[in-house]
Write a structure and sequence with these properties.
With 209 residues, this protein is of the alpha/beta class. The protein contains ten helices and eight strands. The radius of gyration is 16 Å and the shape is globular. Bound molecules: ligand LCLJCK34, ligand 3NM and magnesium ion. Residues 16-183 form the Thiamine phosphate synthase/TenI domain.
Length: 209
C-alpha cells in the first residue's frame, strides 16, 4: 500500500551538512541532490545524511543514484525521465525504496503514472534560476490539473517557489512543496525553514476548513 509524504515542506540540498542543518531545524522530508557520478564522495555524503535523518526521524530522498539508494537503504529515490531510462525499477521496488518521479508535460505524467510512483513532482511552477530547463513555467492551474489525474498519489510542486508562494501551491492541490534557493540562499536558512514549515502546515489547515 502507498503511504503519503511525511511533510509538506521538502527542501532539496547538495550536501550532508545541509541535510543535518535542515533536519535539525525541523525538516522531515529532504532530498540529497549531488550532481556528481556515484562514488566514494557520494556514498560518504549519503551515509552522513542518512544518519542525520535517522537521528531526527526524517525521511531521506536521494536524487538520481538509484544503485546507491538500494545499497545504502535510503527511504526514497527521486528520478527524472532520463533517469527512468537507466534505472532498474524492479530492483528499487524489491529493496522497498519508494519512488518519486519528475514531470514537466502531459507525456511525462503519462510515463510517470505507468511506473506507479509514490509521488510525482511537477515543475517548474515558476521560473527557476537553479538550472536551465526547456519548459515554460507551469503555473498554479497545472498543479490543480495534475492533482486531478493523480488522485491519491502525492503531488510535489517545485521550481521558483518562495515562502510567500508556497501556500498557493498547497491551495492548488500540491501535497508538498520542494525548494532550494528560497531556503538555502536566505541569511538565516534554519529560520526560513521553520517559517516554511509553519506556512505550509497553516495552508493545509486552511484548505480543509
Ligand atoms: C522534488 C524534485 N522534483 C524534480 C526534480 C528534478 O529531477 P530531474 O528532472 O531528474 O533533474 P535533476 O534534479 O536530477 O537535475 C528533483 N530533483 N526533485
Ligand atoms: C531541481 C529542480 N527540478 C525542477 C523541475 O522542474 O524539475 S526545478 C528545480 C530547481 C528548484 O530550485 P529553486 O527552488 O531554487 O527554484
Ligand atoms: Mg535526475
Amino acid at each position: 500500500m502507498k503511504t503519503g509524504l511525511p511533510s509538506r515542506f521538502y527542501p532539496v540540498v547538495d550536501s550532508a551538512v545541509w541535510v543535518r542543518r535542515l533536519v535539525d531545524a525541523g525538516a522531515r522530508l529532504i532530498q540529497l541532490r549531488i550532481k556528481q557520478p556515484d562514488g566514494p564522495f557520494v556514498r560518504g555524503e549519503l551515509r552522513i545524511a542518512r544518519e542525520a535523518c535517522a537521528a531526527q526521524g526524517a525521511c531521506l530522498v536521494l536524487n538520481d543514484h538509484w544503485q546507491a539508494a538500494i545499497e545504502e537503504q535510503v527511504d526514497f529515490i527521486h528520478l527524472g525521465q532520463e533517469d527512468l531510462d537507466e534505472a532498474d525499477l524492479g530492483a528499487i521496488a524489491r529493496a522497498g525504496i519508494r519512488l518519486g518521479v519528475s514531470t514537466h508535460s502531459d507525456e511525462e505524467l503519462d510515463r510517470a503514472l505507468s511506473v506507479d510512483p509514490d509521488y510525482v513532482a511537477l515543475g517548474p511552477v515558476w521560473p527557476t534560476t537553479l538550472k536551465k530547463m526547456p519548459w515554460a513555467p507551469q503555473g498554479l492551474e497545472r498543479i490543480a490539473g495534475w492533482k486531478r489525474r493523480l488522485g491519491d498519489t502525492p503531488l510535489v510542486a517545485i521550481g521558483g517557489i518562495t515562502l510567500e508562494r508556497a501556500p498557493s501551491c498547497i491551495e492548488a492541490g500540491a501535497d508538498a512543496v520542494a525548494v532550494v534557493s528560497d531556503v538555502l540562499a536566505n541569511a538565516d536558512p534554519e529560520g526560513r525553514a521553520r517559517d516554511w514549515i509553519v506556512a505550509t502546515d497553516k495552508a493545509v489547515a486552511q484548505a480543509v476548513l
